[in-house]
C-alpha cells in the first residue's frame, strides 16, 4: 500500500502563496520602462569586489544584447568621481556615488533597518541615470542579478562549474523600472564570499559569483568580511564558540569536561578533535568564552561589519560529568533550559560591553526543544536556527502525515512561544554520502513556504540547506538548489514554474521530454514507500525504492529524445544559438550523468540485496540453535575484512512473534547491571554507547517503520520513525545475557506490536536493519571509540536498505 503524501498540500500552499503574492505585488510591480542596453556603466572610486563584478556582469549582458560574439568580455566599468549625467551606476549605500542618494533610495544601515539586518535592493532612474543598488556590497550584486533575471537572463547552476550555467542569450534588451525597491523573503546572509576555504581563490570566486547571481542564502564560510563580501559580514562565524580551545588543554585542563574521572579532550588526528564541551561551572572558562566572542566581534569591525553573531556549543561533544555540572543540569526542568540559560549568561555578559550586538544560536542536539523554563532563559538572543534533523527527506516538510516530520513539526510549533525569528538549518542536501542528485525542488520550495508562514510577523532569518551549493548532494542537485535559491529571493512562484523555466532555458529544444521525465522523477521520489531521515545515509536502499523499472525506462528515453532534439537544432544554427546549445548540451549531459549514477546504484542494490527466509521455530533456545548466523559488518571499506567485532544476528518467527537476536563478542565490553526500564524519553543515550542494539523494522505493506533500541543497562526505546511518543509499548520483551567481553540481546516482538493483525502470510516481506553499536580502537591514537556494524550494514532510519525477511511458502521450514 502506497501512501501518496500531500501532493495536495504542496498545491494548496502554492496556490495560497500565489494569491498572497498577487495581492502584494499589485502595488509594486517591476515594470520595464527605460532601455539601458547601450548605457555606460560606472562604479565609485571606493567600489568593492562585488560591485565591480556586478558592473562587469551588466557589461557582458549589454554585449550579448548588442549581438557581440564574445560576451566574456574583460572590460571593466568606468570609475566615476561624480554622479554621471547618464548611464548606469552600480553600488551600495557606502560608496561615494550612492551615499548622497541613500535616503532617497530608501537604503538604510542594517542596524537602523526594521526588521534588523534586512536586505534591500533598489533599481531607480534618476534623471537619465539608472542606479542599481543595495544596502550592502553583495546587495548591489543581487540588484544586478535581479535586473538581468527580469530581462530574461538565467543563472542556472549552483554547482560551481563556472560559466556554462549563465544564460544571457535569452535577453533581448536591458530595460529597467523607474523605481523598484525589493526586500527578499529571507534575510540573505551570504552570497558573495569565499565559500570554499580550501579551494584557490579563483574557484571560490566563481562559486561565490554563482551563489550571488541567484541571490542565494548559503552557509557562511571562512571569513565573512573578506574582499569578496566587500568587507561586510552578513553573519558571524561564531558557531561552536562556546567550547574550550583544544590547544590549551595542558594549560587549562579544568576548562575541559570531566569524563570517566579525568579531564578530557578528543585525541588529535581523529578529524573531530575540536569538538569538545566546556565545564560550565568553571568561571574562568565562561569568562574566556565571553572575552573570545567579544574580541572576534571587535576584530571583525563591530556593528559596521557584523550583522549578527552566532554562538553555539560543540557539535555533539560529551558533557562534563563533574559533580557541579551534574548538579547544574539537574537544577533545570529540562536540558534545553540549562543550555539556553548558559547561552543567555554569555549573551548578556558580552552585551554589557556591546549593547548593540546581536546574537543568535541553534536549536540543536541538547537544545532542540523549546525550553521548559520559558523565555526567561532566552534573553539576549535575537534569533534561533532550528536544526530539523528528524525531518523526512521523502515527504514534504509541512506534511504532518509523515511520522518523521511530525516530531520536528511538533517541536517547531512549540518554538512559536519564543516569539523570535526562527531560521532553518536544513539537511536536505546532506541526506546521502556519497552525494547523489535529488529531484526535490518541490520539497525545498515547501521548506521556504513553511518558514515564511511560520515566521510571521517576523521575517525569515537565515535559511540554508547545508551543502546546497558545493560539495554534498547540492553539487548534483542543481535544479533543487536553484529552486531553493529562487524561492528564498521571491516565494511567489511555485517549484513547478521554476522547473518549467529551468527546462526551457537549460534544455532548450530538448525541454519537453525532460520536463515530463523530471516531473515523473519527483513524483517517484515522494511516492517511495519509505521514510528517510538522519544525514549521510548510504543511498543504496533509496536506489531500490526510488528508481523503479518504469522510471529507468522513461529517463533513458527522455535523455535520448532531448539529445537528438538539441543535436537537430544545432544544425545550421547562428553563432549565438550554437553557443547557447553547447551550454544546454552540457546541462543535459550533467543531468544524464546524475541519472545514470542512480541507475548504476540500483543495479548494485538489486545485486547485493539481502534476502533472509524467515523460518518458523520453537519459542525458546531451540529456535535460535538451528537458525543461520548472519555476520554483522560495517559499510566503511577501510574497516571491511577485519572481523573486529565478531558479532552476528539471527532471525526467525514463532506462532506469535518475530524473534531477533544479536550476539556480540566485543572484547572491550564490560558487563553492566541490567535494570529494565522503558519510555524514559530523553534518558536514552543510545547514540554514544557501545553495547547497544538497534533495529529498524518495516512491516509488510506499511510505509513507516518501527525503531527499537536496547542498551546493556536495560533501557528500552521504541518509536514510530523518530516519534518516540507515538509508540511506547510494554508488549515486546528483551532477554539479556552479558559478561565481560560478551553480550547477547534477544528481542521478542509480538505481531501486534508490529502492527499486524493475526500473523503474517506466506509471501509477506519485512525489511530490517539490525545494528550493533560496538567498540573500535583507533589505530593512530589508541583511543577507544564507538562504531557500528549491522545486517546488512548500519543504516539509521534508512529502511530502504533493509534486509528482506521473507515468509516463505514452505510453512517456514526449508525442505531438508
Ligand atoms: Zn564541569
Ligand atoms: Zn516521511
Based on the model shown, name its key terms.
816 residues, binds zinc ion, six-stranded mixed β-sheet, 17 helices, alpha/beta, 18% strand
Structural account:
By secondary structure, this protein is α/β, with parallel strands linked by helices. The strands form seven sheets. Strands 18, 22, 23, 24, 25, 28, 29 and 30 form an eight-stranded mixed β-sheet that branches. Strands 3-2-4-6-5-10 form a six-stranded mixed β-sheet, with helices on one face. A five-stranded parallel β-sheet has the order 13-14-15-16-17, covered by helices on one side. Strand 23 (692-698) and strand 24 form a beta hairpin. Helix 6 (283-299) crosses helix 8. The longest helix is centred in the C-terminal third of the chain and has 34 residues, at 575-608. It is globular, with a radius of gyration of 29 Å. The structure holds zinc ion (2 copies). One zinc ion is lined by residues 392, 394-395, 402, 404-405, 531.
Précis, in short:
Helix content is 30%, strand content 18%. With 816 residues, it is of the alpha/beta class.
The multimeric state of the shown protein is single chain
Sheet with most strands:
8 strands, mixed
- Bound molecule kinds, no repeats: zinc ion
- Number of H- or I-type helical stretches: 17
- Rg to the nearest angstrom? 29 Å
The share of residues in helices is 25-40%
Distance between the termini: 35 Å
Identify low-pLDDT runs: 1-27, 191-204, 218-222, 637-642, 811-816
- The whole-number mean of residue pLDDT values reads 84
Shape: globular
Question: Number of DSSP strands?
Answer: 30
Secondary structure category: alpha/beta
* Strand-residue proportion: 15-25%
Amino acid at each position: 500500500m502506497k501512501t501518496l503524501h500531500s501532493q495536495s498540500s504542496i498545491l494548496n500552499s502554492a496556490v495560497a502563496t500565489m494569491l498572497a503574492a498577487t495581492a502584494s505585488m499589485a502595488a509594486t510591480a517591476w515594470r520595464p520602462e527605460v532601455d539601458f542596453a547601450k548605457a555606460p556603466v560606472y562604479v565609485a572610486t571606493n567600489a568593492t569586489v562585488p560591485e565591480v563584478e556586478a558592473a562587469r556582469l551588466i557589461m557582458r549582458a549589454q554585449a550579448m544584447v548588442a549581438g557581440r560574439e564574445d560576451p566574456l568580455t574583460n572590460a571593466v566599468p568606468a570609475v566615476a568621481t561624480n554622479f554621471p549625467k547618464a548611464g548606469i551606476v552600480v553600488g551600495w549605500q557606502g560608496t561615494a556615488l550612492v551615499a548622497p542618494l541613500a535616503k532617497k533610495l530608501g537604503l538604510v544601515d542594517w542596524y537602523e533597518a526594521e526588521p534588523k539586518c534586512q536586505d534591500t535592493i533598489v533599481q531607480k532612474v534618476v534623471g537619465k541615470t539608472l542606479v542599481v543598488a543595495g544596502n550592502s556590497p553583495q546587495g548591489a550584486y543581487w540588484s544586478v542579478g535581479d535586473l538581468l533575471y527580469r530581462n530574461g537572463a538565467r543563472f542556472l547552476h549552483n554547482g560551481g562549474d563556472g560559466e556554462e550555467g549563465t544564460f544571457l542569450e535569452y535577453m533581448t534588451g536591458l530595460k529597467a523600472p523607474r523605481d523598484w525597491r525589493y526586500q527578499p523573503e529571507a534575510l540573505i546572509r551570504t552570497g558573495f564570499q569565499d565559500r570554499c576555504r580550501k579551494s584557490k581563490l579563483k574557484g571560490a570566486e566563481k562559486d561565490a559569483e554563482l551563489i550571488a547571481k541567484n541571490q542565494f542564502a548559503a552557509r557562511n564560510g571562512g571569513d565573512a568580511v573578506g574582499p569578496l563580501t566587500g568587507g561586510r559580514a552578513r553573519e558571524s562565524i561564531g558557531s561552536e564558540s562556546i567550547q574550550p580551545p583544544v590547544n590549551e588543554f595542558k594549560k587549562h585542563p579544568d576548562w575541559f569536561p570531566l569524563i570517566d574521572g579525568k579531564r578530557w579532550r578528543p585525541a588529535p588526528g581523529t578529524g573531530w578533535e575540536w569538538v569538545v564541551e566546556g565545564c560550565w561551572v568553571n568561571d574562568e572558562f565562561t569568562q574566556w568564552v565571553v572575552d573570545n566572542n567579544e574580541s572576534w566581534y571587535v576584530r571583525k569591525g563591530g556593528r559596521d561589519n557584523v550583522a549578527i553573531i552566532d554562538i553555539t556549543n560543540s557539535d555533539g561533544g560529551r558533557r562534563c560529568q563533574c559533580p557541579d555540572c551534574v548538579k547544574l543540569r539537574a537544577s533545570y526542568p529540562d536540558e534545553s533550559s540549562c543550555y539556553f540559560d548558559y547561552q543567555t549568561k554569555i549573551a548578556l555578559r558580552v552585551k554589557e560591553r556591546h549593547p548593540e550586538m546581536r546574537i543568535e544560536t541553534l536549536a540543536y542536539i541538547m537544545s532542540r526543544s523549546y525550553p521548559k523554563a520559558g523565555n526567561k532563559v532566552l534573553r539576549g538572543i535575537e534569533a534561533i536556527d532550528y536544526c530539523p534533523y528528524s525531518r523526512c527527506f521523502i515527504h514534504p516538510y509541512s506534511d504532518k502525515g509523515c511520522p518523521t516530520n511530525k516530531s520536528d513539526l511538533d517541536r517547531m510549533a512549540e518554538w512559536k512561544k519564543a516569539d523570535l525569528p526562527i531560521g532553518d538549518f536544513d539537511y536536505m542536501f546532506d541526506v546521502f554520502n556519497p552525494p547523489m542528485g535529488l529531484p526535490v525542488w518541490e520539497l525545498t520550495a515547501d521548506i521556504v513556504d513553511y518558514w515564511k508562514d511560520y515566521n510571521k510577523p517576523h521575517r525569515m532569518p537565515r535559511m540554508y540547506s547545508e551543502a546546497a551549493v558545493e560539495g554534498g548532494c547540492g553539487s548534483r542537485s542543481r535544479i533543487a538548489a536553484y529552486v531553493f535559491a529562487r524561492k528564498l529571493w521571491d516565494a511567489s512562484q511555485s517549484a513547478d514554474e521554476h522547473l518549467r523555466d529551468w527546462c526551457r532555458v537549460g534544455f532548450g529544444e530538448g525541454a519537453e521530454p525532460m520536463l515530463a521525465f523530471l516531473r515523473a522523477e519527483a513524483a517517484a521520489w515522494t511516492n517511495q514507500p519509505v521514510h528517510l531521515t538522519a544525514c549521510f545515509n548510504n543511498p543504496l536502499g533509496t536506489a531500490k525504492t526510488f528508481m523503479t523499472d518504469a522510471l529507468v525506462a522513461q529517463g533513458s528515453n527522455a535523455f535520448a529524445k532531448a539529445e537528438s532534439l538539441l543535436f537537430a537544432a544545432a544544425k545550421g544554427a547562428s553563432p549565438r544559438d550554437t553557443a547557447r546549445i553547447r551550454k544546454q548540451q552540457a546541462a543535459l549531459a550533467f543531468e544524464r550523468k546524475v541519472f545514470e549514477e542512480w541507475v548504476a546504484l540500483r543495479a548494485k542494490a538489486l545485486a547485493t540485496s539481502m534476502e533472509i527466509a524467515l523460518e518458523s521455530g520453537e519459542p525458546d533456545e531451540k529456535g535460535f540453535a538451528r537458525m543461520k548466523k548472519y555476520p554483522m559488518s560495517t559499510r566503511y571499506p577501510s574497516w571491511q575484512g577485519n572481523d573486529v567485532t565478531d558479532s552476528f544476528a539471527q532471525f526467525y518467527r514463532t506462532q506469535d512473534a518475530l524473534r531477533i537476536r544479536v550476539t556480540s563478542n566485543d572484547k572491550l565490553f564490560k558487563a553492566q547491571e541490567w535494570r529494565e526500564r522503558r519510555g524514559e524519553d530523553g534518558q536514552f543515550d543510545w547514540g554514544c554507547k557501545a553495547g547497544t542494539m538497534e533495529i529498524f523494522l518495516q512491516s509488510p505493506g506499511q510505509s513507516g517503520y518501527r525503531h527499537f533500541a536496547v542498551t546493556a543497562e536495560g533501557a528500552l526505546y521504541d518509536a514510530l520513525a523518530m516519534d518516540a511518543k507515538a509508540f511506547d509499548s510494554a508488549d515486546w520483551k528483551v532477554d539479556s545475557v552479558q559478561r565481560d567481553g560478551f553480550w547477547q540481546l534477544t528481542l521478542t516482538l509480538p505481531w501486534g506490536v508490529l502492527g499486524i493483525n493475526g500473523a503474517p502470510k506466506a509471501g509477506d516481506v519485512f525489511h530490517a536493519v539490525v545494528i550493533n553499536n560496538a567498540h573500535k580502537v583507533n589505530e593512530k591514537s589508541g583511543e577507544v571509540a564507538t562504531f557500528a556494524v549491522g545486517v546488512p550494514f548500519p543504516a539509521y532510519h534508512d529502511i530502504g536498505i533493509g534486509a528482506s525477511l521473507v515468509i516463505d511458502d514452505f510453512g517456514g521450514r526449508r525442505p531438508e
